[in-house]
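Give me C-alpha cells for this 231-residue protein.
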Amino acid sequence: MTDPLRIIAIVCLLLGAASALIIAVDLLAAHKQHMWIMNLVWPITALYAGPIALWGYFTAGRLSTYRVVQEAKARGEELPGKKKPFWQMVVLGTTHCGAGCTLGDIVAEWGLVVFPQTLFGQKIFAAWAVDYVLALGFGIIFQYFTIAPMRGLGFRDGIKAAFKADTLSLTAWQVGMYGWMAIAVFVIFRHEIPKTDPIFWFMMQIGMLAGFLTSYPVNWWLLRVGIKEKM
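Here you go.
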C-alpha cells in the first residue's frame, strides 16, 4: 500500500508545484493582479489545490488583473471583479485565508524538523500549536494588505480590522486541517508521518482542502455581515 501511495503523493505534489509555477509565470508575464497580495495567494493556493487552483485562476483571477481593472476604469465601466457571483467572492476570500495558513504551516513544519518539539508527549500537538500561531500571523498580514487599502485604514486600525476578519476564518480552516491530519495520523497510519516523506505533504494537501471546506461557510458569513471585504 505504501509504495503506490507514495507514488500518488509525489504525483500530486508535482501537480501542485507545476500549477503554482504556471500561475506565477502568467502573473509575471502580463497578468499581475489589481490587488497585489493576490499575486501571492494564487500560487500558494495552487500548492495544495493543484489543477483546481489553476482552473480558478484562469476563470476568476484573470478578471481582476491590474490591466483589466485600469481599462475598465478608463472606460467608466463597472469593475469586472464586481460581476463575480457571491459564491466566487467567498471562494476568493477563503483562499486568501488559506494562503496564510499554508505559508504558516510550511514554515512551522520545516522549522520543527530542525528544532523538534513535543506537546503532551506528541510531536503533532506541538506542530499544531506552532502552525496555528504562524498561520494566524501570516493570515493577519495577508488580510491587512486587503482591508487597509480598500478601507483607507492606517496601520493600527488596519491590523485590528485584519485580526477581527481573519481569526475566525483561519481557526475554522485549521479545524478542518487538524481534523484530517488527526484521522491520517491516529486512524489511517496509526503513527506520525515523517515530514521528509512525500506522504506527509500529500496528507497536508488533503488537509488544506478539508480546511477550505470548514472555512468556506465562515467566510460566507463574514462577507455577508461586512467583517471581511469582498474580493
